[in-house]
Each structure stands twice: as C-alpha cells, then as structure tokens.
Amino acid sequence: MKLMIVDDSNIIRNRIARIASDSFLNQKLPNIEIVGAAASGVEAHALFLKTRPEIVTMDLTMPEMDGVECTTLLTQVDPQVKILIISALSDKATAIQALMNGAEGFLYKPFTDDELINALLELVEE
Amino acid sequence: MAIVNNTNTFNKYSGLLIAVTLFLLFNLSVLGLNFYTSSTLDNDAISINLAGRQRMLSQRTAKVLLTIQVDAAQGKFNDKNTAELKKVVLLFDATLNAFKSGGQVLGGDEKAVTLNKVSDSAATKAVDAALTIWQPYKQLLTPVINSQVVEESSLDAATDYARDHNLKLLTLMNDLTTQLEKNTKAKAGNLKLIQTIALVLSLLLFGNIVFNALRKLRAADGEIEKAQRETTEILNTVKEGLFLLDPELLIGTQFSSSMNKILQHDISAKVPFMPILEALVSAEVFSQATNYISLLFGNKVKENLILSLNPLMQVRVYSTTSNNIASAPRYLSFQFNRVIEDKRVLHLLVTVQDVTEQVTQAEELLKLKGQSNINLDFLRKLLEADSFQLQQFLKNTNTGLSALNTILANADKRASNHDDLANQCFRIVHSIKGESAAMGLEAIEAYAHQFEEHLSLLRKKTNWDTQEVLSLPVMLSALFDQISQIEVIVNAIQLHLESANTTQKQTSVSSSISHNLTRLAAQVSQNQNKNVRLNLSLALLDQVETKTAIQLQQIGIQLIRNSICHGIETAAARAAKGKPPHGEITISTQMTPQGAIHFSVRDDGQGIVPARIRAAMVASGRYSIEMVDQLTDKEVVKKLFEPGFSTASTADKDAGSGVGMDLIQSLVNEIGGELKIDTKPDVFTQFTFRIAQHKAPAINLESNLFDSTVNVLERVT
Description:
heterodimer, A: alpha/beta, Rossmann fold, B: alpha+beta, Four Helix Bundle (Hemerythrin (Met), subunit A), six-stranded mixed sheet, 14 strands
C-alpha cells in the first residue's frame, strides 16, 4: 500500500517513515511503500495528485493549509483514501472536524511505535 | 470494540427444514407409487374389459356362424353376416394373441388400446387352452369368412367344431375374465393397504414435525423469556447507565434503571437522547458530541481509532433539576460502542458512569502534590528559624491552644455570653497568627487566619447555632495538629543538632526578637504595598525575664501591624504631605534613671485622629452619631482598645480584625505596667509601655487631649 506522510515537523515525518518501514521488515504491517512526505497541506495536495497514495498520515496544525482543509481536498479527489489524523489531543473539536470531512482515524501525539503500527493496522483492515 | 450480531437462520432451523423435506419427499414417492399402481389398474381394467369382450365374441362367432349355416340351408346368402363373422373372428383372434404375447388391439370405442400379455399362471393357462381350441377353429372359419360362396362342407365343419368347442371356449374366456378380475382385486387391495400405511406414516411424520417444531418453539420462547429476564435483571442491577441508541438517536426500549439517577432525568423508551444530553453538558461539548456520535453511525471512521476523541469520556455535567449552583460538581463518562449487523451500524451501545469520585480523587491528589510543596517550604522555614524562638513559639502557642480548649470546653455553660467567648478566642488566635507570621510559618498563619475569620463571622451574629460552635473545636484541633507536627520536627532537629555536638552559638533573646520583628515588618509592608524602614534597639530585652520579652515581642508584633496598616500612609500620600516616601517604625527599649524599662513603638504615619475613630464607631453600627459626639477625644481613643473595634473597613490577614489593640491590652495586663499613647496627626504615633518591676501596676491616667499631642495613659487594673 502506498503511504504519504503529512506533517510540518521533519522529526515527526522521519519518525513515522522509520516506524512504517521498520514494521514492514517485521512483517507486522502489509507491504507499505512510502511514496512521499509533505510539510504542508498545499504540498500534500500536489504530492497526492502525483503519487496517489492509499494511506495518508495527516497533521492538523500546518502552515498554508491545515489538516482539516487538506483532508477535505484529498477525500474529494479520492473518496477511498484512508487518512489517519496524527495530532495533539488538545484540540478535540478540530480532530473531530477532520473526521467529519473524511478522515478515518485519530492518533494523538506523542505516540509510541506500537501505537502508530496498531493505528495503521486498524486503518488498513477491512 | 464493536459488537457484531451473527444471525444464521439455516443453522438454527436445520432440523425442522430436514424433517419437512423428508416429509415432502415421502409424500411425493407415495404419490408416485399411487400413480403407478392406478395406471396398472387402468391397464387391468382394459384387460378385464377385453377378456369380457372375448366371451361375447366367442358366442357371437358361434351365433353368426349358425345363422350363416341356416341361411345357406335355405339357399340364402347374407354378406352382412359374413362380414360380421370376419370382423368378430379377427377381433377375437387379435385379442387372444394379444393376451398371449401383448400388443395393440381395437378397444370398445374402435380405438387401438395396448394390451399387456397375461402374466399369472392361471390366466396364461386359460389363454393357452383357448389358443389350442381357437387355432383349429380359426382354420375352419377362414374359408367361411374369405369367400362369397361358402362351401357347405367347410361351413358344416366349422359349425360342427363350433358346436363341440364353443362352450369350452366361453368357459375359458370366462375363466380368464374371472382370473383377471381376481388379480385386479388383489392389486387394488394392495394399493389400499399401501395408501393406508402411507397415510399413517405421513401423519406420523407430520405429527413429529409439528411436535418438534412446537418443542423447539417453546424452548426458543423459553430462552427468549429467560434472556429477557436476565437482561432485565442485569439492567436493574448494574451501576452503569446502559442503553442502545438507534440511528434516529432515540433511546432503545430497554435501558438500565440506574439511568434515571445518573442522568438525573426521567428516561423512557424511544425518547430522543440529544435533548437530554444538551441539558447536561456545555454547548461546546454538546456540539462535539453530536459530531462524534454521527461519526460512529457512519461507516467511514474506525471505531478504535477515535476513542480518544470522545468528548464525553469525562465530562462535567450540570444539574437539570435544581437551581442550586453551590451543589458539588458532577462528572459523567459516556462510552459508545458500535453494534454491527451485516457490516452496518445498527445501534450504539452507550455506557454511562458517574465518575465524580474518580475525578475528585484525582483533583485531591493534585492538591496533595501542591501541599507537599508547601510542606517542603514549611520545613525549610523551620530549619531556618531560630531554635530558641521556635521553642518559645511552640510553648506560647501550646499555652494559647490549651486556653482555647478550656474556653471551648466550657462553652456550653457560658452559652449566654457568646460575645465574651468569641473575644477571648479571638485574642488567642490573633496572637498565634501574629507570632507565626513573625516566625515566617505561613501555613500556621493561614490556619489561624481562617480560624479568626470564622470567629469574626460568629461575633457578628447574635445567636449561634450549635453547628457553628461545634466547628470551633474542629479548627482548634487542626491548629493543634499543625503545632504538634512542628514539635515533632523541631525535636528531631534539636536531637540532630545535639548529637552532631554542634557548638551553635546561643542567640540572645533580643537578637532573635529583632530578627522576627524585621521579618514581620518586611512581610506586612510587602502585603500592604508600603515602604517601611524598621529601626530596632532592643538590647535591654536581654535583661528582662524571657517570658516578658516574648510578651513584649507580641506587643511589638501587633503594633508593627497597626503601624503599617493604619499608621503609615502610601508613598503617594506621604509625598503629598512632604514626607519621605518610606515610613519609619522605631522600636526601642530604654532604661529610666529609676531603673524601669520602657518599651516603645513609634511610627511617622498619620497619627491617631479622633474624628476618624468617631466615623469608624458610627460605621460599625454600634454607636449612634449622638453617642459618639458626647464622648471626649480621650474616651474615643480608648475605644481603640475595645474588642472588635477597627478603623479599617475590611479585614485582611494583617489587620482590620479589631483585635490587635485588645490583645495589647491583655498583654499589658499580664505583664503589669502602664501604656501611654502619644500621637500628632500626620506626624507620628508612639506607644510607650513602662514595664512595672517588683511592684503592683499603678493607676495613672494623664491626658492632654487639647494639645496637638494626645497623651493617653492607660490605667492598668
């Protein structure tokens, strides 16, 4: 499955990428191919059109275009895309808004490796 | 976790379905057998019919043959007879052969019918015997039926044969008919038997199916009833509120009985849930919850991946029934679980819990954490404090608290005189407050302040209720606890110091009092936001009894508070009067040439102004304007020493409770001596206490109220 990581922090982006690729080695997750990482909603939208990922991890607070707006755009392009919101718990209302706009799950920061793996597993499970 | 309903109808009713299928198959095969038997019976009927016809044909053959012979004897020839004979003979022959080996013959209605060859031995025997007679007969008849002109000899031969064998042939055909009838009858009997058995079996099978179905139905009903009973029991017993929410957001037909209590709302089946929720929670939480619930009813989001977003996981709820704002806050927890059938969210199972206790406990834990910080600070203060002073403080406080205890223990007997009781308590507590503040023991100071506030509330009331009096010992015991804690710690420190054999320099009484008063002045001036400089010259205190020195310290404490709070003006006010921005308090001890010791406290504040005291007296509501006007200035100043009197409009931790002067009065009484007040408006106030030594307190009242300086010498009784 193709994964795109959206987060304005490069530390978080690298962490998600590392966990996703490591867990593939451990065969915990189905074949996940990281097709791109974006630091803002605008970047994510452009990258999405180009790479067409099936899974997206989405930060909420980002410059230019926030996660809620970006989620709306991506699900308009592909209603089947599975979006996992990864954000701090402080703003539940915004996270719920993102879910209303088409995201499928929520994971709060900070998260452990296992929490992310389980969330991704839950996300891809039919 | 989602709850998934699996309803496999086939498994549940497989037994019944198999029984019904067997029943149908059985009935179908019986029907088939019936059909088969009746079709053979049809064939048998044809055979019987045709066998009967053979009897007729044999007689007809003989009759027509004889008719032809009679006609021939008379020389007549009727070709109709010949034709009939031919027809009859051919028909008989064909039918007899068909009986022998099967085949088609003309039936009664001139249509071809299939005749089965006879199978049983008796019939076969009859047919064979008939054929034996018939074959020669047929030979003899052939010339008769085939020629226009019948030879007499042939005719006679045939007629003779007919005469000889006709009866035999009839008998054989009759036997055949009888035999066939017998066979058919037997077959029909069998058929009847089979039908009867089949009917009985079918009925049995049907009965079995009905019985089993009923039994199953009853068992199922029983199970349903039992399940319902169990469900009801569970719903009646569980502490949690449990109910199902349907996609229209209506509450399901069954819900736990604790729901009403938890939601503080009368719940009934099929009522909308959202208005109930709306009344309980804040508008913001409600709108989040609405979205959250709609997310769960949708199929898109993963239930397990949004649990942490549940805005109702722990939510403060507001009372819908009473307007009592003061009631303790309540917290509820709503958990939602999808109930899924055929990959569709059918319901949400909602679990509601009252988590007030957990939340309160968590809050208390947090508070305790804060308290432990305070305690650390407290410990640091104790370590910093001078050990001699600390011992004195503990001793004084214990004495005070014991006195308080005695007063409260006798409170009932003295119920008629509550004012007195409150004032006595107030003095003691106020003194503890002052000393603890001087020691920097803020925790004790806070306790004492709280106690004092409670007492001042009581003092304002004319009638005390028992509860209010009873709360006093509780507060006293809290103070006792604090003090005994300190004692434990102080003793431990003392032991530690002694065992370490430290040669700590014993500080003098005067220096430790100086230290305390300096700290107090710094603290109070900071609280009051005033600039104050404290000048101390207390060396002579080392020459008086320690007890007296500590009492003088208490007087100093009260007077420093009064000076900073009431005497010294704000920096702005001082500037307006042309005074330096910082106020000055001077506490000094002096020895008179006669060897008496004077303890004086002087500030450069606004002085004592009788007019202000008069105004405060009127404002207190205890005195009318007329009463106040009748008093002399001296008398007015003396009011300062009355319990509960204060010129400050609001009481805070430092001053304004109106007890300080009263306390000073008591201390002066205890020590013995004279107290003099000198004051000049906007310039200074000075309290001078002449300590009486080795002699009874003298009665001395001087005054010079009409000077710009007011001298009030309090008489000590």
